[in-house]
């Protein structure tokens, strides 16, 4: 467990960077949280009704949905009506000392308010303007709103996610939104680095559509290579095998055998050495082509094993394997605790910690998410 302690923590890598986070929902707020975890001073500015995700429950804590709490730590918060002249004036005041502004308004909204990139760049030439959008500003889908599940559908992700012979499925977490937030944060960091040379800010955009397409490896690479449309493969990898889920006597396990050496070690441990020398399976390409026969033989060999014990033994041998854990089991795993991947702030906040580990300037956890809304100034 990682418990916030300001007294003993060094400043984060982004200490001194000021961020105004105007974004709502997931991608933008996740970007802001990444920057805040690593020391940036982040002010989350919400509309009068609040970020929509405050109501995305249950569960709720003190009237605020856990969904919102999971994306907005290390931020102070305030309420502002940017559709009003008074709200716009306040925002301009906030931007006077800011390094970064993050927003995900529908394309044209900031421009309508006189707060678009060109407007702000003239007034604040060092400001980095980060926009998270659905499809970008132009092109056939330019300016349209984007949502994670719809973009998963449109970018081909759902077409390769699902059981063989079944229907395409949404990935069970908002992978497009989250990778868009990661790419937005990366773009901000690139722009901050370039500003050290030029002294100028720039426009950074991460769109859900682009980021969804970027996730298509190896399916896009395979299609570019052979022109064959990728299909549903269930848990199995399209290129290598055994890279799949398997039943055992107890819990199911996932084998992720990536080379011939690992396959040989697996067969030796299972006392099925003949499989490693079988010409159908001795090389990676053959195992992939003859995967159905190999699966049937491995299912038989694994049937008497305890899944958790087997996974541990194989990992120790250098064969990637893991029991398939539930979310609660994963969050309570001893290695999760050792890696300090669960963080507490005060009495009411528990969340998943930053996965980015820096030796001298690690992530710090200074503020629980802003649960109150106020037009009077920043609130925790």
UniProtKB/TrEMBL annotation:
It comes from the Bacteria. It holds the Pfam family CoA_transf_3. One of its GO terms (molecular function) is transferase activity. Keywords: Transferase. This is CaiB/BaiF CoA transferase family protein. It comes from Polaromonas aquatica.
């Amino acid at each position: 467990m990682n418990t916030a302690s300001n007294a003993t923590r060094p400043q984060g890598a982004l200490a001194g960077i000021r961020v105004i986070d105007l974004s709502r929902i997931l991608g933008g707020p996740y970007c802001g949280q990444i920057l805040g975890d690593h020391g940036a001073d982040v002010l989350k500015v919400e509309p009068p009704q609040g970020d929509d995700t405050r109501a995305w429950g249950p569960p709720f804590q003190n009237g605020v949905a856990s969904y919102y709490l999971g994306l907005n730590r290390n931020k102070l918060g305030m309420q502002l009506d940017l559709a009003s002249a008074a709200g716009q004036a306040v925002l301009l005041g906030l931007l006077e000392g800011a390094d970064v502004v993050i927003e995900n308004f529908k394309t044209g909204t900031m421009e309508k308010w006189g707060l678009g990139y060109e407007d702000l760049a003239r007034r604040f030439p060092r400001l980095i303007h980060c926009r998270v959008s659905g499809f970008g500003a132009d092109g056939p889908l330019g300016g349209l709103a984007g949502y994670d599940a719809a973009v998963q559908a449109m970018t081909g992700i759902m077409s390769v996610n699902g059981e063989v012979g079944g229907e395409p499925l949404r990935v069970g977490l908002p992978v497009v939104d989250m990778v868009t937030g990661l790419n937005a944060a990366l773009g901000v960091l690139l722009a901050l680095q370039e500003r050290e040379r030029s002294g100028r800010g720039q426009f950074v955009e991460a769109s859900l559509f682009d980021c969804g397409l970027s996730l298509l490896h190896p399916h896009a690479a395979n299609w570019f290579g052979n022109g064959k449309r990728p299909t549903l493969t269930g848990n199995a990898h399209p290129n290598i095998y055994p890279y799949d889920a398997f039943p055992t006597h107890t819990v199911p396990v996932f084998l992720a055998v990536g080379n011939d050496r690992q396959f040989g070690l697996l067969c030796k441990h299972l006392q099925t050495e003949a499989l490693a020398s079988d010409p159908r399976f001795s090389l990676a390409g053959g195992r992939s082509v003859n995967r159905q026969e190999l699966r049937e033989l491995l299912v038989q060999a694994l049937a008497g094993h305890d899944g958790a014990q087997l996974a541990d033994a194989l990992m120790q041998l250098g064969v990637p394997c893991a029991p398939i854990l539930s979310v609660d089991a994963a969050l309570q795993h001893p290695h999760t605790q050792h890696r300090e991947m669960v963080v507490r702030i005060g009495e009411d906040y528990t969340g998943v910690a930053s996965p980015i580990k820096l030796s001298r300037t690690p992530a710090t956890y200074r503020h629980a998410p802003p649960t109150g809304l106020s037009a009077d100034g920043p609130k925790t």
